[in-house]
Here is the input.
Amino acid sequence: MTTFVLRLYDYLHRNRWLCYVLLAAIVVGSILLTLRLRFNEDISDFLPNDEAYQKSMSIYQQINAADRIFVVFQLRDSSQIDPEKIIPAVELFGQRTVREHWKTTSQVDYDKLMGIASFVYRNAPLFLTATDYKRMERQLAPDSIASALKRAQEQLLFPAGSLVSNNIQRDPLGLFTPLITRLQTANSSIRYALNDSFIFTPDSKRAIVMIDSPYGSSETSKNNALIGRVNDAASAVEKAVPGVQIQVTGAPVIAVQNAQQIKTDSLWAVSIAAVLILSLLFYALRSLRKMLFIVVSLAFGWLIAMAGMSVLHQHVSVIVLGIASIIIGIAVNYPLHFVAHLSHQPSPRAVLKDIAEPLVIGNITTVGAFCALIPLDSTALRDLGIFAALMLMGTILFVMVFLPHLCKQNAVQKVVGQLQEETNETAEYIPTYPRNKWVVGLLIIITLVLGYFSLFTSFDTNMQKINYLKPEQRELLAHLSKMRNETPGETQLYVVSDGATVDQALMRSEQDAPDAFVTSRREQQRRIDRWHNFVHRNHIALYETLPRTATQYGFSTEAFADFDTLLNRPFHPQNIDFFAPLTANGIGTRIIGHTAVCVMNVPNAVSDSIITAYSQRNDGRWAFDVQSMNNAIATSLSDNFNYIGWACGLIVFVFLWLSFGKFVHALIAFMPMAVSWLWILGTMHLLGIRFNLVNIILATFIFGQGDDYSIFITEGLIYERTHHRRILASYKRSIMLSAAVMFIGMGTLIVARHPALHSLGEITIVGMASVVAMTYVLPPIVFGWYVRKSERMKKGKSEKRKG
Here is the structure.
């Protein structure tokens, strides 16, 4: 490996023009490819790609209006309850929404409700169930008919009698009243109060206006512009109606706020980190030129990664790129080691000879660790693995191939004499190794304790905890959640029926909702046959008893014309489009593509068992609730975490073994990573830090950073014992500088207000402290023990031969 790198250096050194042309071509090509890349800001990219989970999430979002923006109006004096003072502000806001052509809902449309009720009355036979007919049979007894008509006569005498006259014409006996009640129940997913038809919260303190975003909840850039216009309209209304306060919330608003907070936090963290890191590098290197070498190397690696992403994908998450900035902490090792060794070697070629092998080995193992993310079932984690691998390969390529030719040969010649003297002085250097038994005992005890606590490290699957919510948003959402029509001790269960066609999905759905309004053609035919049999069986009551009794109570022969039409009208099964008045308003079974969804409330205690029962049927039906989706995230996190741990560990260890050629050397290099991992998990549990969808990627990062450090320390130990020259101290200084850069770069995220970024900062501090401590302490102790044991064995064999 070192021979190949040196031969390549010599060739490009003789043909510098080729080196520069090649560098320019790669840079220009990468820039052109990067310009094709488009960006999104959807944090849901971190969610599992599992088909069942994605479909559950899509159904949940569509049913629960995840694309809605809620504009909330309330009096500035929150102790008052006076809807009349709020309504003018809602009306004024509504006028502005009309000019903006927004699709809004601020009032209950009574005409639409009456239209839906009329549709159900006109087509009642399509909605009646077997249970309804048992009740209707009793209502057709002569006494029951007389009682129903007497009630109808009395209702018409009241001042509001004209409002119920239509219902009496359509249903004089109240046969379909339970059907209309069921219709109202099917459309009562939220609880609200009405004032002059405007929608208020149940306590009448807040009026609600809903705006449907045409961009969904994840297109944050477009939603940002829309929400900006909504806020402008709200501000104008607040000025016109001073006593009213207007707030805006909803999934699109929260997504925009998260994206903005991530940008703000990242900008602050990067700015602080840049100042501190540049100051640290200048203090350590005392050379602007060397600092420039580091910056250019990282920029080249970043450009290569962006170009590679543009080849593989048209879009990439800005959040992924922001998190990928932590890879800089690993990539900086390569140019940092190079420029640090420039001060101790007579030429760039000599630097390559010393560090090419450990750098390339470290790069291969780290790239392999990040490639372990690629098979995961999360778009963001997969993209992060690809981006990290490409950036690390790009950076090492620049450091090994191009950077040596940007360094002037005479920049290091002045230290040749000094180096020769130092080399002579240290030619017979005999390394010593720590053997403090108290330190070893303490390490073992701490490792055992933290290893025990590591067993209890848990995952946080609550998406709300990695979303950024302003206090006022949190309070507002708490008030809106009270509008949900939920019963204490119950949960909403979503029963999903798939089919090759809508009709097939409905046939499966009918097993769960026999009283559904929207049914398959087969069920419609059953209901129609049941209706015809009912009319035929009760012909005397409907065609003789009812008209005769109606005349006795003063009703004309034409009073129930609509009901008579219904009795004589032929009915036929209808396609799904016929039920648009119901499906378009979310009444009853929800139709999404070729999927039918029934939403029902079930006791919390039986929810899991119902979901499990459906999953075992394998008949095109399945069920989920919010908790089961969270459980799916937890399972995915756990599986990913275990996979990352084993895959990264195996990849790193195999490469270490192949590179060092000895199992024991690979074990010494790997040990700091294994032990530090126990320390990290145990410390996280003790500090109450939990893994989530975002910070789980640091599992790979710890391996990536840890193996670089461990390889250098182990290489240094082997080199000193083999060549009897000091080099370990130089490696340790480079590692300490690299670790300090990473501590600053990622540790600054601890000041972030966004929970996801803040958690990255927390784990970085814990992880890096553990990795550096183990890298500094463990390899010298274990290597020293191995050397002493080997020497004793050699000595013993020698004495035996002499004897």
In short: The chain has 31 helices and twelve strands. Residues 410-427 have pLDDT under 50 and may be disordered. Residues 370 and 398 are 19 Å apart (CA to CA). The domain at 440-455+634-795 is CATH 1.20.1640.10 (Multidrug efflux transporter AcrB transmembrane fold).
